[in-house]
Write a structure and sequence with these properties.
Elements lengths: L1 H74 L17 H14 L5 H13 L5
Length: 129
Amino acid sequence: MLKLSTHFFTAHENELRKLRKVTTEFEEQNAILSKHIENMKKGIEKLEGEADEQQKENTALLAHLSKLRQLLVQNFNDIQVPGDEDKVSIDNVDKFVEKLHNTLQQNAKDHAQLMIKVKSIVCRMDYPK
């Protein structure tokens, strides 16, 4: 009976050692995972901060673009793109500038006076800051 008891005790001790080892491994894994979670949280906070800054920058750029469009409409209201009947407006300012640019780029010699007038307007414009 003592042999059986000793064998049971030894088996029980072995099982306890295995359980302690597994517990230690789980604790180590949990520590590693906790560190990963902490690093991920810091990364998320950093990215959220960068996203906020980018949003502020985008808002500022959109405001600047809006002011620039208004300035272009004010200063180019007397300019007519050859072959186009539309006058510049806040609704078509982007297309107007594109058409004007293409016309002057493709036919600079034919539109020398228009080029001079456009350069003069651009030089006089007070750009928003």
